[in-house]
Amino acid sequence: MVTAEILGNLTNFIIQTISNSGYMGIFLLMVAESALIPIPSEVIMPFSGYLVSTGKFNVVFVIIAGSIGNLVGGLIAYFVGSYLGRGFILKYGKYVLLKKSHLEFAESYFKKYGDRSTFISRLLPAIRTYVSLPAGVAKMNLKKFAVFTLVGSIIWSTALTYVGIALGEEWNSIRKYSNYFDAIVVIVIIIAIIVYWKKKKTTPADDS
Fold first, then answer.
1. Dmax over Cα atoms in the chain, in whole Å?
2. I want to staple 119 with a disulfide (CB 3.0 to 4.6 A). Which of 1, 148, 155, 177 is the partner?
3. Looking at residues 48-69, what average pLDDT do you find?
4. How many Cβ atoms from other residues are within 10 Å of residue 18's Cβ?
5. At CA 169, angle to CA 165 and CA 172, rounded to 5?
6. Cα–Cα distance for residue pair 66/153, rounded to 1 Å
7. What is the distance between the terminal CA atoms of the chain, rounded to a whole angstrom?
8. Considering the domain boundaries, does residue 191 fall inside one?
């Protein structure tokens, strides 16, 4: 299949980039992934986690590189949406494989969940790459966007890194189980939201 061939070439590119450039390679690849370039973090971070398991990388530096890279890439996409607008995105998005349907889905998601969607989306497949655009178009508060994006990116990068550490030399097998991994992440998010709202409702109001 062509898709499998492209993914294989992309995986080799990621491996070579990280192997040759270390933490800077992780950072740049995660910038690209979050700035709409179709480079999967599901390969970047697990491979980096595998290198942690071999002693070549430090886990803290790997997570920092991945998280900051995602933040920078997210800010790039945010400013594209903010300054260049929806029309520009629709016209030129095809060059980074961004379809109109992708943007419309991200827009509807952002409208439904508001500012907090920039945090939740960092933990979700597909939508995590595109939600920065509607946030920029809507001119969401930049400080809030940066904080939500960074926190979500730290959680995502940490999870994928530890998957790579746990799998070791079999790190690439995460692709076989990516659907299960995504489902687990979604379930955890739903549970966390339910717990949060229940606590909020049961917390007595401050009369002072």
1. 65
2. 148
3. 95
4. 26
5. 85
6. 8
7. 65
8. no
By the 8 A CB rule, do 174 and 42 touch? yes
Both tokens of residue 169? 């030399």
The helix (H) or strand (E) run that includes residue 73 is helix 59-79
How many distinct structural domains can be found in the chain? 1
Report yes or no on 97 lying in a domain.
Answer: yes
- Token reading at 24: 């800077």
Domain residues for the domain of 114 are 2-176
Rounded Cα distance, 65 and 45, in Å? 10
Does the pLDDT at position 86 exceed 60?
A: yes
Alpha-carbon distance of 26 to 179, in angstroms, equals: 23
Q: Is residue 181 in some structural domain? A: no
pLDDT in tens, 75-85: 998 898 888 76
Which amino acid, one-letter code, is at 189? I
With 0-12 / 13-18 / 19 or more C-beta atoms within 10 angstroms meaning exposed / middle / buried, residue 4 is exposed
What does the alpha-carbon distance between residue 207 and residue 48 come to, in Å, rounded to a whole number?
50
Q: Encode pLDDT of 28-57 as tens digits.
A: 999 998 888 878 888 899 999 999 999 999
Structure tokens at 191: 């549970």
pLDDT band at 184, cuts 50/70/90?
A: low
